[in-house]
Amino acid sequence: MIHKNISVLDIVVALALVAIAIYLYFSETKKTIIDAGPDYQAEKVDVIQGTTQLSDGDSFHLDGQKVRLLGIDAPELHQFCDKDGASYPCGEMAKKHLETLIDGNEIICTSTKYDKFHRLLAKCRAGSHDLNREMVKDGWAVSYYDYKQEEAEARKQKRGIWAGSFEWPHAWRRAHPR
C-alpha cells in the first residue's frame, strides 16, 4: 500500500481548482441570463383555470388575470372585413367563434410569459378544444408564428376571414389606435 503525505499546498491547489470551477459555472449561468435581455425571467410555468369573460377573439379574463392566446392574432372586436362586396363585423364573429369553442367549459391555460400589456401569453384548452390552434384552423385568427400550417389550410379552404378580404389585425390596430 502506497501512502502519500498530503501537503498544505496540495489542499490549497485543490480548493483553488474547486473555487475556479464554481466561479466559471455561475459566471456562465449569469452570462446566459444577461444575454437573454433585460426582461429575462426564469421560466416559471403558470397554470390557471376557470370560467372566462371574453374581450375579443384572442383575449379574455380568467381567474382575475388578463390572458392573450399565444401564437395567434384575431381580428379586433370592432374590426370589419369584406366578403362578396359587403362589410361584416369579423371581430365580433371571431369572438363569437371563440365562445362557441369554449361552449361553457372550464378553460385551462399554461404560460411562461407576459406581454407588454401585462397579459399572460398562454396556450389554452376548453373541453377537447385547443383554442389557439382551432381559432387559426377555423380561419378566425391568423398565425402569429406558431400555427403556419393551420393558417395555410384555412386560407386554402377559405374559412373564416379567409373567405373574403381583411386588414391584418396588427395593421388594423396600428391604423385605429385606442
Could you characterize what this model shows?
The structure is a single chain. The protein is α+β, with helices and mostly antiparallel strands and 178 residues long. Helices cover 37% and strands 25% of the residues. A hairpin with a 2-residue loop joins strand 3 and strand 4. The longest helix has 28 residues, at 8-35.
Overview features:
transmembrane helix; two-stranded antiparallel ribbon; 7-stranded mixed β-sheet; membrane; 2 domains; single chain; OB fold (Dihydrolipoamide Acetyltransferase, E2P); alpha+beta; 178 residues
How many structurally independent domains?
2
Q: Distance N terminus to C terminus?
A: 83 Å
Mean pLDDT: 85
Helix content: 25-40%
Order of helices and strands: HEEEEEEEHEEEHEHH
- Shape by Cα distribution: elongated
Write the topology of this structure.
Layout (H helix, E strand, L loop, with lengths): L7 H28 L10 E5 L1 E3 L4 E4 L2 E5 L2 E2 L7 E3 L2 E3 L1 H13 L4 E8 L5 E7 L2 E2 H7 L4 E2 L4 H10 L11 H7 L3
Parallel strand pairs: 4-9
Antiparallel strand pairs: 1-8, 2-3, 3-4, 5-11, 6-7, 8-9, 9-10
Helix pairs in contact: 3-4
Care to give the gist of this entry?
This protein has 178 residues and is of the alpha+beta class. The chain contains five helices and eleven strands. It folds into two domains: 1-40; 46-175, OB fold (Dihydrolipoamide Acetyltransferase, E2P) (Beta Barrel).
